[in-house]
Amino acid sequence: MAGAILNLDLRGLQSFDQAVNRIEQLLRYPEPLLTDIGEALLLSVDERFERREDPDGMPWEPVSDKYAGRKSAGKATKRSGAVTDPGNILELTRDLRRLTRYQVDGETLLIGSDRVYAATHQFGDPKRGIPARPVYGLSDDDREEIGQLVIEHLDDAVRNFP
After folding, report:
1. Does the bond joining 86 to the residue before it have cis omega, within 30 degrees of 0?
2. DSSP string for residues in the chain
C-alpha cells in the first residue's frame, strides 16, 4: 500500500520536556492550585450564607419558634451587635461566616471553622433539636469551578509548548 508516514517523537524536544516538567511540578507541588481552590470555596461558602442553603442547594431549616423569639428579643447571646432577625440563620454573631478559613498543607486543602458550634450546625445535634445546616461541602458549581482551575493551572504549565 502506498502512502506517507510521519514519525514524530516528542521526547527530546526541549519545549515538550519543559512542559512535562512543569506539569510534574504542578502535580508534585499543588499548593498554588489548592490556594486558588481555597479562595473559590470561601466565595462559595459566603454565597451559601447569602442564599441560606447547603451545598446541594437545599434551604437551611428555619430556626425553632422558641429560638426565634429569643433571637428577636436580643436574648440569644450577650454579645453586642448580635443579629436579631431570626431569618438570618447561622448568623447570630456572624462568627461562623466571618471565621471560615482554608488551609493548604502539602497536597491537602482544608476548609472550615474552628468554632466548636460549626460541627453542630454542619451535622446537627438531634439531642438538642438542632437540625443539620451544612455550610461546607462541594456543590456542582464548586466542582465545575475546581475543574476550571485545574485546567487553568495545566494550561499555564504548557502554555509555551511547542
Report:
1. no
2. ----------TT-HHHHHHHHHHHHHHH--HHHHHHHHHHHHHHHHHHHHHTB-TTSPBPPPPPHHHHHHHHTT-S-SSTT----TTSTT-SSSHHHHT-EEEEETTEEEEE---HHHHHHHH-BGGGTBPP----S--HHHHHHHHHHHHHHHHHHHTT--
Q: Mean pLDDT per 10-residue run, the chain (162 residues)?
A: 67 70 86 96 95 94 76 68 66 80 95 92 93 95 96 82 54
